[in-house]
Specification:
Helices cover about 75% and strands about 0% of the residues. By secondary structure, it is mainly alpha-helical.
Amino acid sequence: MEPFIKNYERKRLSVLYTAPALMYAGTLLATLIFLGSAMLLAPAATADMKGILWLDAAAQFAIGMPLCAVCMLQIPADPMEQFRMRASDLVKAFLICCFFMVLGSLISAALGKIPGLSSDTGIDRILAGSGLLYQIVSIVVLAPLWEEFVFRKLMIDRVNRLGDRAAMIISAFVFAAYHANLQQFFYAFGAGLVFAYVYLRTGKLRYSIAMHMIVNLMYGVLPGQFLLSGDGNLIISAVIGAAEYTCALAGFILLLLERKRIKLLKGWIRLPKEFPVYAVLNPGMIIMIACSAGMMFFNRG
């Protein structure tokens, strides 16, 4: 194992943590430019929420996310050990991910009942009125593609040197903080742990992308279409709700049964006991948390 060089590793992490803050800034600036241009050239495009959401998605995926990726690419990647996961193992991972999605949602809902700590950001209302095409393109296709590329491929390729446990936690935390709202933070963190584990074990991004797409469809788009809109078929709504909780229950049982088979490899950097301090107390982490917390405060209901 190689020795831990405090300043070098702290600098690497600081740059990686700064990337989401750069994404926020790029997305905000691009949104303002796109919105201003649309108001001048095509006012009808900004007449309702749907048009504004499309402009925001364009700003995020065409400007914000690429800036985030460019920032992370400043840090050299390290080689990864690759293994194979059987199809049955991937299904188990998906079900465990479903459990974390439901658990995280319940935690957010419970915290939202605390006075002054509302978890309602209006996301559900926006989804209900955004239109199916927007949800499919943005939530089911573009978001998983970009998020898995940035927070799994780019991030984990640069922190797996620290070991699987650290790589999973760092990737999942940055992924959750990137969502910048309490409503999504906890389930994004849990799902991020599973996506990170799948990528670490396979070295293939397509598996976590596919899993991410299905999760977003199952727990985001479908509830938005049938459970939240108020005009969905009651039978379909009941089936969707039953499927979500059945998968979550199966995932909980599998997590209990399979927990000893989960392999977490050590990295080739010898981590000191005070590593969590170095991983947290650096300029990039402070900037990222400040931006995420600011967005949470701004977006709260």
